[in-house]
Amino acid sequence: MSAGLSVVNYDILKIQKLKFEYPSSFYNAIIITSINAIDPLWNRVDGSKKIFVVGDKTEAALLEKGWHVEVKANNASELAKIIIANYDHLKFVYFCGLHRRDELPKALLSTQINCVEVKVYDSVAIEKSFDCIFDAVMFFSPRGVHAFAKANPENIHLAICIGETTAAAARIYTQNVRVAHKTTVENTIVTAVKALQND
Fold first, then answer.
1. Which part of the chain is the Tetrapyrrole biosynthesis uroporphyrinogen III synthase domain (predicted)?
2. pLDDT on residue 138
3. Helix or strand run (H / E) with residue 93
4. pLDDT value at position 199?
5. What secondary structure letter does DSSP report for 9?
6. Partners of 81 in the β-ladder
7. Which end of the chain has fewer beta carbons closer than 10 Å to its terminal beta carbon, N or C?
8. d(CA 33, CA 10)
9. Average pLDDT for residues 39-67, to the nearest whole number?
């Protein structure tokens, strides 16, 4: 890196598409909380529906494919609040992964909003231990935090996280956590560089 820092990169989660049944009931809105759900859906889902997403990358990937994004939120809890406050009349299908978090489905279920859940991908954790001690580790998902910590229990001294949900998982292992101001990979890297240069 130009900042004088060296980086070790590895994909801690391997994404696998799942076979899924397209919902038979009528719906007029789609929820996507991860960019990993987009590829399995391509050419199988009507992109003209109202689409509700989490994250800048997810929104950008959908816009690149020509789909219209109705609402973008920073995390699932925030998206649930927006839907409950403004879109409770819609019928949703939530395309997600096998290990999706509970915040969004629980919130919608508690208000009787019509939502069908369809699992379209799995994320398999690849645990890898390292001999070296890192000054910081960047995390982009809660599952990534847990997989890294399981294989490297003494190696999270400073956790740089893409968002608050990931940061909550990191705080189980260390209180030394920094959160990116925007939920993008680029901003997470900037946060890491600033944190290490100020150390």
1. 26-187
2. 96
3. strand 92-97
4. 59
5. -
6. none
7. C
8. 23
9. 87
CA distances to 59, 120, 158 from 173, in Å = 31, 30, 10
Pairing of strands 13-17, 92-97: unpaired
pLDDT attached to residue 192? 94
* pTM value > 0.70: yes
Helices 76-86 and 103-110: crossing angle in degrees, nearest 10, is 20
Identify whether residues 68 and 156 lie together within a single domain.
no
- pLDDT confidence of residue 3: 62
pLDDT at 174 over 80: yes
pLDDT of 152 reads 94
State the residue for tokens 């009931």: 25
Range of the domain at 139: 127-197
Spell out the residues 6+ positions from residue 119 whose beta carbon is closer than 8 angstroms to its own.
18, 20, 96, 97, 98, 100
Measure CA of the first residue to CA of the last residue in the chain; give whole Å.
17
> How many C-beta neighbours within 10 Å does residue 17 have?
13
Q: Is there a single domain that holds both residue 57 and residue 117?
A: yes
DSSP-assigned beta bridge partners for residue 132: none
State the CB neighbour count (10 A cutoff) for residue 197. 10
Identity of the amino acid at 85: A
d(CA 106, CA 196) in angstroms, rounded, equals: 38
CA separation, residue 1 to residues 11, 48, 102, 193 (Å)? 19, 41, 37, 9
Name the strand (E) or helix (H) holding 3. none
Q: Answer yes or no: is 29 within a domain.
A: yes
